[in-house]
Amino acid sequence: MSGGVRVSILLFCSQSAGSVAEILESLISYVHDRGPDHELIVVLDGHLVGLYARFQERLAGDGQVTLVGLHAQQGQVATIRAGLAVARGQAIVTFPSYPQVDTDAIPPILEALAAGADYVVGYRVGRQGSPFKRLASRMFNGLIHATTGVAFHDLACGIHGMRSSVSRAIPNYGDNQLFLPILLAREGFRVTEAAVPASRSEPGLHLFSPAALGRRALDVLALSYLVRFTQKPLRPFGAVGVVLTLIGLLLCAVLVYQRIFLHQSLADRPMLLLALLLVTSGIQVVILGFLGELLIYLHFRDQVNYRVQEEVRGEVISDAASNEAELRHG
C-alpha cells in the first residue's frame, strides 16, 4: 500500500461551475470521515485562476488534500491525467465538479473494483432530470453502442473508478472522460458498470450549443474508427476506394458503349468528368489506406497489442516422474 493510502478521490474541474465549492466541501468531509487511508486530489484546469486561489487558501494545511493546477486550459482528460500522476491510492475514483452524484455514489464504485473490475463506470438511478434530457442521454448511449459496439447505460456520468495499475494505461486521446472506458475496453481491461444514486441537486435541463453537439458527433465518428480500424486502416479506406472506383469504371463502360455502338459524342458530357473523378478519387482513397498500413507497420510493429491478465508458473513434471506418481497412487 503506497504511503498508507488505499483510496484516492480525484475531483477534476475543467470548466467553471457554481456548485464546485459545495462538492469540494462534501468530499473533504468524506475523506476526513474515512480516515488517513483516503485522500482527495483536486485538479483545476489552467484558466480557472481565481478558483485555484480560493481553493489554495481553503485547503492550506490539510494533509489529506492535494491541489493541482495546470498551466493552461487543456481539457478534461488532461486534468484527470494530472490527478492520476499524483494519486497514491490502490483504488482511484474520479468525481465530477458539477452536480451529477453525491458522495454516497463512491462506495458502489469501490465495491465493483473490489469485485474484480479494472475500470468502473457509474450510471445514475433515480434521476430527476427532464424527459427530454433522459431521452437525449439514451440516444447518445445508443449511438455510442451502434458505432463502437460497446454498450453503457450512462456514459456521460462523471464518476468513474479504476485500479492504480489501470491509471498508468489511460490513453492520451480526446478531451472528454466519457471515451476512456471505451478505449480501455478495447485494450482488454475489465470495464463494468455500477449503479449509483443520482444527485438530488442535479439540474433538470441542460442545453448544449450546436457547436458542442457538432464536436461530440465528430468525436463519436473518430472514436468509432479508432475502436474498429486502428490496426487495419486499409479496410475502411479500401472499401470506400474500391466502391468509388467501380462506380467510375461502370460509368466509363457505359460511355464507351454509347460512343462505339450508339455513336454518341463524348464532348460536353458531364458524366465523363464524373466517371474520371470517381476513379481517381477511389484510387487516392485506397492509397491513403496503404499509407496508413505502412505507418502502423513502421511505427507500431514492436508495440505489444495484448494485455496479460495473469501468469502462473508451475513445475514441469517429466514423463518418468508422472508414470512413477501414477504407479504410487495406482
UniProtKB/TrEMBL annotation:
Residue ranges of domain Glycosyltransferase 2-like in the record: 17-166
Cited PANTHER family: UNDECAPRENYL-PHOSPHATE 4-DEOXY-4-FORMAMIDO-L-ARABINOSE TRANSFERASE, UNDECAPRENYL-PHOSPHATE 4-DEOXY-4-FORMAMIDO-L-ARABINOSE TRANSFERASE-RELATED
Q: What InterPro entries does its record include?
A: Glyco_trans_2-like, Glycosyltransferase_2, Nucleotide-diphossugar_trans
User: Transmembrane ranges?
Assistant: 237-260, 272-298
User: Which GO MF terms does the UniProt record name?
Assistant: glycosyltransferase activity
State what protein this is by name.
Glycosyltransferase
Q: What is any Pfam family matched here? A: Glycos_transf_2
Q: One GO BP annotation here?
A: lipopolysaccharide biosynthetic process
* Keyword annotations of the record: Cell membrane, Glycosyltransferase, Lipopolysaccharide biosynthesis, Membrane, Transferase, Transmembrane, Transmembrane helix
Question: What SUPFAM superfamilies does this protein's entry cite?
Answer: Nucleotide-diphospho-sugar transferases
Q: What cellular-component terms does GO give this entry?
A: plasma membrane
What is the organism of origin for this protein?
Eiseniibacteriota bacterium
Return the EC number: 2.4.-.-
